[in-house]
Write a structure and sequence with these properties.
It is a single chain. With 141 residues, this protein is mainly alpha-helical. It folds into two domains: 3-41; 58-127, 434 Repressor (Amino-terminal Domain), CATH 1.10.260.40. Helices cover 55% and strands 0% of the residues. The chain is rod-shaped, with a radius of gyration of 26 Å. The relative contact order is 0.09.
């Protein structure tokens, strides 16, 4: 293969295939660093696909109806106050507060206690909603 032939073929593979840099290097008998130099010289940018790990925040589902209900209660309690200041009062970041409000955060006991203290309620008042029916079929009052 001539010099320009392997570069153009490797460039096409970088742009149009799912092959890794190492696989392309092996295919053309080059080193991975040569392929990386080619990418820089031709300004080819590749993004990596997610393979696993945590889901992005936007794709997470709510943990349970109780988490959503408590999140809505936090939103109503916060009113027009900014997430940063309300979160600071709870001892959490604005991002964590957003997850709590969306029902996507599993509350720790300390967080529940901080929420109850801030809102002037007992923890059990946050956990029990009189409108929610339980397994026994009766409504809690």
């Amino acid at each position: 293969m001539t010099k320009s032939t392997w570069k153009s073929a490797a460039s096409d593979d970088l742009k149009n295939s799912e092959l890794s840099i190492s696989q392309i290097a092996s295919k053309y008998g080059r080193s991975p660093s040569s392929i990386k130099r080619l990418m820089r010289s031709e300004k080819i940018y590749r993004t990596r696909k997610r393979r696993g790990g945590l889901k992005p925040f936007a794709k997470m589902d709510a943990l349970s109806p109780d988490h959503v209900r408590l999140g809505l209660y936090l939103i109503r309690s916060r009113g027009n106050e900014k997430k940063t200041s309300f979160g600071k009062a709870l001892g959490v970041s604005a991002t964590r507060l957003g997850q709590m409000e969306a029902g996507r955060h599993d509350f720790t006991l300390r967080e529940m206690q901080n929420i109850a203290d801030l809102l002037g309620k007992a923890i059990f008042e946050l956990q029990l909603d009189p409108k929610v029916e339980r397994d026994s079929g009766s409504t809690l009052h």
